TrEMBL record:
Matching InterPro entries: Cell_div_FtsQ/DivIB_C, DivIB, FtsQ_DivIB, POTRA, POTRA_FtsQ_type
The protein, known as: Cell division protein DivIB
Membrane protein topology class: Single-pass type II membrane protein
Residue spans crossing the bilayer: 28-47
Keywords for the protein's UniProt record, in alphabetical order: Cell cycle, Cell division, Cell membrane, Membrane, Transmembrane, Transmembrane helix
Subcellular location: Cell membrane; Membrane
Cleaved signal peptide residues: none
Superkingdom, natural source: Bacteria
Organism: Priestia taiwanensis
Amino acid sequence: MEKEKVIDLGERIPRLKQELRRKSNYRLVFYIFFFFFVMIAVLYFQIAFGNISKIEVEGNKYVTKEEVIQLSGLKNETSYWKISEEAVEAEIKKHGEIQSAKVTKKFPNNIYIKVEEYGTVGYLMKGSSYHPVLENGKVLDVSIEGEFPVQAPLLYDFREKEEALEGETQNPGLQFEELQELAAEMAILPESIRKSISEIYYTPKEKDALSITLFMSEGFEVHVTINDFANKMLLYPAIAEDKKHLKGIINLEKGAYYAPYETAE
């Protein structure tokens, strides 16, 4: 009978320890190499892509790209990684003509800014030129030459005041007492009705300081007040359709009634 092979544990244990030590060394070298690789990668990205390389602006109409970038506070030397989109958006929205702003980071180091300006509800005749009137009541200190960029009524005889909108810190522009109220009403007026208005005149009365007169593209003259203007003008389409063959004056100041031009005269 053959003798069973006897393993000398005294020889085996040192060999196992040596193999474990060798594996541990390999693992340590791998971790050290990986650590330095990550550090080099981080440093590379910080140096190559750390600062902003390009800022794109979209959606602006009256506010220039340069104004938007200046409001944002962003510069080429600004660190891309330290930018807070929400903070930049808040700064841009301080401009009285900007309703909303969205800032997006585009990897590796570009910034995309999309702004939405307040809509144009009319063009005010001031002096010898027309100025855009926005939904928030601001009259821009910019005269329109040539074709109007947006279809909106022409506004006449509104009174100016020297006061900025509440909370506004950038570019307050021109403001008008009654026009602010009218602009807010125009902003919620259905577009189909708004496009029918050709001209609006501020025609205050002794007992109604908010009285206005509208001239419509369908040939009607409308007497109405700024107070609850949008709601009152909802009656106009039905009356205009019913009286389309006989133009005249539609009075919506108190209730609603109609008079042909011959009778009104």
